[in-house]
Structure formats: C-alpha cells, structure tokens
Amino acid sequence: MNNTRHESKTKFLDAALHVIRCKGYTATRVEDICAAAELTKGSFFHHFDTKEELALAAAAYWGTTTAAFFEAAPYRAEPDPLARLLAYVDFRKAILQGELPEFTCLVGTMVQEVYSTHPAIRVACDKTISEHAATLEADIAECMRLYGATEEWTASSLALYIQAVIQGAFILAKAKGGPAVAADCIDHLRRYLKLLFAERKPQGENTMPTAKKAVLCLTEVPEVVNWPETHYVFIEKVGPFPSTAPQAWQQLHPLVPKLLEQNKITGYMSLYKVAPQIYRAGLALAAPPEDLPGGLTYEKFPGGKYSRFVLTGPYANLPEACSRVFQIVAEARVPLRDDFGIENYISDPRITPEEQLVTQILVPTA
C-alpha cells in the first residue's frame, strides 16, 4: 500500500511539473492535475490538502530532480574550473529543446506569478533557485583565485547573476514563442564569463610551467548520417548516468552468452536521453531476437538523422568528449530533435589497446 501511495504522489508531482509550466499556477486547477496524472480527486486530497501544498511539494521535487540531472551532466567531467563553468553554460543552451514547457523552469514560472500573493511558494522557489546557483559557487571561487579577480563581487553574486540571465532568457522565449532568443541570451552570458576570466592571466602557481594535458582525440566537425533501423535488446536504467550506466552494463554482460545461443550480435551501443536521465546499455542484433534471456527488453529502434562525432581513446574520456560535443552542437546551432542519443562502440575492448578504442557519439538532428 505504501508503494502504491508513493507512486500516485509521484504521478501528481510529475503532472504538476508539466501543467503548471504550461498554464501557470493560478490557471491550473486540481482537476487539471488529476487529469494529467490519470488519478482521482480523492487520491489527490489523500496526498495534498490544497493546491498550494502541491505547489510547495512540486518545488521541492523539481529541486531534487534537477539536482540529480545536473549532477550527471557531462560538463562535470571538465577538469578546469573555467572550462567547467563555460561547459555548464553550453549545457544550458543545449537543453533548450522541445516545446516551451519542456525546457522552461517550474519555480521560475511560479515565482514570477505569485511572489506577492503566496509567500510560502515564493520562499520555496527561492530555495530551489538559490540551491542550484550554489552548485556553481565553488568553480566561480576557484576561477576568481586562479585569475586574480579582485572586484567588489562574490562567487555567490555571480552564480545568482547566471541564473538571472537564464530565467530572463526563459521569459523572452515565452514572449517570442520559441527558444532562439534564449539561446542568444545564453551566448551573451558565455561571452561575458570569458571576458570576466579568460582574458586575465592566471595568478600564482598557475604561471609556472605545467605538464600539458593530453589532447582529446575527437572529431570537431560533425558528419550527418542516417542511422538505420536496428533490432535492439537492452537493459534500461533511470537516474544519474555515472551510476546507472555501469549498473546497466554489469547486468547486461552476463546475459550475452545465453543471447548468442540463438542470435547474432552485430554491435554494442548505448541509447540515452539526457533530460529524463534514461540510459540503455544494449546490443544490436541481425534479426528480431529468439529466446530472449530474462531481464532484456527488445525494441526495433527506428534510427534516423544524426550528427556523428568520433572519439579515439579510452572510454574514460567519454564524459569529456560528450561535453565537447554538446559545446560544438550549441555553438554551431545544430537543429536537434527529441530522440535518443547514441554511443556506438566500434572496437572490441578485449583485444584493442585503450588508446585505440573507437567510439561514435551521435546526436539526434532535425
């Protein structure tokens, strides 16, 4: 019973994230939430006494969900604090995908509307926005130290300024009916941060000669390709990729010998969606599977148009490579579509030296 109640409450919260971003808090009715969640009003009032109580829970849920999403984002792999900060901005631009409610902010939407009429909601929204801004403060502080920033401002104030630009970009996107103006605003933010830090000379120990970082062996110009329809069997996990991806592969590998008894494997590949944190570790087959081992799921992946990048080197370089791919795609304004990204593992790691492993990174392209 407790699990059922938990699942129904989560459905209401997921529904609130969507409906409030579409209609606003005031226009959203309890009936709208129930319809979107496909649950009854009786169930709603079992979990929440009022619509405001739902909004408060939704703000907290939004904070927890987005915190996990950004914790797993590829910009986290950047070793340098300034590169990490700029990659964060690139990532914010790259996820301006889908319809307006899909990429705009729940708490930003609510606080603009009810900041003076619902103080509890205002406080909840402030908490969520401020906590996300705080995740940037350590990198900003390190940039200030490395580049000798001595102006009358703090890491906290710059982190909040970054959020102000992003929230303002969402408002303009709503006003103009699309993400293009938001992308332009984020481009200006990136240029500002580069002017703030990148044109300074590093201070102290960073002026001393250091060992050169190994060059990432990644193609910089995407090749547009059509991925073919693929018979695909996989293990799916939902959550931060650094933890879910290894788990998925660990569960998949013991099933391969049984699968090979009746099927021909043509490749190893992962499919993933960044925003909902869906990760699939899987295998391409020559035909629909026969005698599919328990635990595996089969799907005919439709394929489609992709921008392909190629990484040569250890799998440990994949997070950095994906971060760079996001940056290239954002800078080139490659039009994207809502579909799975692909990592296609060309080499057999059992017989291929790490530095010679070849991985294709494919971004779904409109």
Shape: globular
Number of strands: 8
Distance between the termini: 44 Å
Written as H for each helix and E for each strand, in order along the chain, the element string is HHHHHHHHHHHEEHHEEEEHEE
* H/I helix tally: 14
Beta-strand residue percentage: 15-25%
Please write out the topology:
Blueprint: H1 2-23, H2 30-37, H3 41-47, H4 51-71, H5 81-94, H6 100-103, H7 106-114, H8 119-134, H9 137-147, H10 155-176, H11 180-198, E1 223-227, E2 230-238, H12 241-252, H13 256-260, E3 265-273, E4 278-285, E5 297-301, E6 304-312, H14 318-332, E7 341-345, E8 358-364
Antiparallel strand pairs: 1-6, 2-4, 2-5, 3-4, 3-7, 6-8, 7-8
Helix pairs in contact: 1-2, 1-4, 4-8, 5-9, 5-11, 5-14, 7-8, 8-10, 9-10, 10-11
Verbal overview:
The protein contains 14 helices and eight strands. The protein has helices spanning 2-23, 30-37, 41-47, 51-71, 81-94, 100-103, 106-114, 119-134, 137-147, 155-176, 180-198, 241-252, 256-260, 318-332; strands at 223-227, 230-238, 265-273, 278-285, 297-301, 304-312, 341-345, 358-364. The chain has an eight-stranded antiparallel sheet with strand order 1-6-8-7-3-4-2-5. Strand 3 and strand 4 (278-285) form a beta hairpin.
